[in-house]
Amino acid sequence: MTMQMLPWIILVAVLGVAVIALAVWALRPRPAPHQAPLPTDWALTARPVFNTDERRVYRLLREALPHQIILAKLPLVRFCQPVDANDVRYWYDLLGANHVAFAVCSANGRVLAAIDLDTERGSSRRIAQIKQSVLNACRVRYLRCPPDRLPTLAELQLLVPHHTNTARAPQAAPAPSHSLHEARDSLSSTVANRRAERTALWQDSTFFQDSFFAPDNRLDGMGASDFGPLSGMNGDRADSELPSDDIGGVVVDSPRTPNPTRH
């Protein structure tokens, strides 16, 4: 019995060793893929972003929608994203190489419409279906036109219906608001009131009454006072020192403090 089971035991042992060896080989660290060295001579030259037809469409878009942002050759993955984050790789592989010729965007970067040129050497039916499905899912209007039948300015403006009124012509500078007029009137009224108050306070102040800016009314009642003139000063001398034209004082703009008299 033992001799009959020996071949099977050997076979199971060999299979076990083979499975272990295969697992070790599969789990071994793989070396980084070899990258090609950078070229020493960059044999490249610049080329225009637009061809002749694309340049015409771009000018039409700028004229029809001057207040919108026009982007060229915008990839689909730039303005859409998958609902499930686990499907990023699938959608990137499906959409990564596709783009629209022109994208009309709002000021905050939201794509409002997309335009493609329908050329004979254009994309395949599959790519066209992918673009149409993506733009429909993102609620972006899509226009595909041949180069020899470009849309008019009015047709391009209809692509962005919510912004048509602001895009037809540049708007004039807004007139001053009602609040600005109210603020200006309030400021003028405040300045006038302050000036009136300052004048009234200046006229009614004790500084105006007790200084040399006003006639000295105390001299008018000198003769009727119970107190006589100071010693050494008679009435004739006092009368001779008074001006003959009854002017008691002169008003000047800025009072000057008299210098103290040294004895």
TrEMBL record:
Pfam family membership, one: DUF2726
Domain called DUF2726: residue spans: 47-147
Tree of life domain: Bacteria
Annotated keywords: Membrane, Transmembrane, Transmembrane helix
Name this protein carries in UniProt: DUF2726 domain-containing protein
Protein's UniProt keywords contain Transferase: no
InterPro entries attached to this UniProt entry: DUF2726
Residues spanning the membrane: 6-27
Region (Disordered): 165-190, 224-263
Coiled coil: none
